[in-house]
Amino acid sequence: MVQFFTPPEYHTDINTPRHLLDRLSLNSRLYFVARHVNILFEARKVVSRGEFDTQAWAQASYDIFKHIEGCGGRFHITGLNHLAELDQEVVFVSNHMSTLETMIFPCLIAPFVEATFVIKESLARHKVVGSIMRSRNPIVVFRDNPREDLKTVMSEGQARLEKGISVIIFPQSTRTVSFVPEEFNSLGVKLAKKANVKIVPIAIRTDFWQNGSLVKDLGPICRDIPIHIAFGEPLEVHGNGREEHKEIVNFITNNLKDWNAI
Fold it and tell me: What is the CA radius of gyration of the chain?
């Protein structure tokens, strides 16, 4: 498995040039969106051939990562050492700002552990990325019945973890730039406790890629906003998990404050 980043940190070289076609797009999102969609359609072809394994998933994600850098994105990623030190499957929990983290988490996480997402049913049916997401055996929830979603994540999540597949969860109900601790549920902690695995907090600032008003996945990009991703130390869940949930929320909040995002 190819490892794209060397722990403990990665920072985009300040001299990284922008793609010529991006510059010719006059700071619009035209080239950014066109190339992004092209990468996804190339990945769909691999899926259709039955060859979209973990390496192919991570490679497609890394292609998007480099495309973002080529369109002015500047990444600052810390805590990669915590991924490198993992010796078993875990639950990852992250705040959720934009499409960006869904696209680039695979190239960061998959080289270290097998993983899949908990996703909304609408994403599994998405005309462009649906087949890609389904190929990774995700846990699909419907968001209209929290009790049923909890049962699904608990049963299917534990099954994935028992097979050595880590689970990535966005506990917020939707993508949003603002972080409201009360809206960040404890689903990840509950799953980690039930499966007796550790939980890894992830804090992200990805409003470089804004949510669109008409098509949420294809919003504008803000090249002056840096992209931050921080992986925390794996936590062991004790008791009812309230302290660990609080620690995760504090980890995200403190990082967002450091990044001037709140």
Answer: 18
Per-domain residue ranges of the chain: 10-258
For the chain, the first-to-last Cα distance in angstroms comes to 37
| Residue 248 burial (10 A CB sphere; 0-12, 13-18, 19+) | buried
CA angle 247, 85, 51 (to 5 degrees): 105
Q: Are 19 and 70 in contact (CB under 8 A)?
A: yes
Q: What angle do CA 130, 118, 31 make, to 5 degrees?
A: 45
Where does 42-82 show beta strands of DSSP type E?
75-78
The CATH code belonging to domain 10-258 is 3.40.1130
pLDDT score of 1: 87
Helix (H) or strand (E) holding 153: helix 146-162
Give the C-alpha distances (Å, rounded to integers) separating 141 from 90, 95, 101, 111.
Answer: 20, 17, 19, 26
Q: How many H helices and E strands in the chain?
A: 10, 8
How high is the mean pLDDT in each 10-residue block of the chain (262 residues)?
96 97 93 96 98 98 98 99 98 97 98 97 93 97 88 98 98 90 96 98 97 75 97 98 98 98 87
Quick check: 112 and 84 in contact, CB under 8 A? yes
pLDDT of amino acid 214: 63
Give the tens place of pLDDT for each residue, 15-27.
999 999 999 999 8
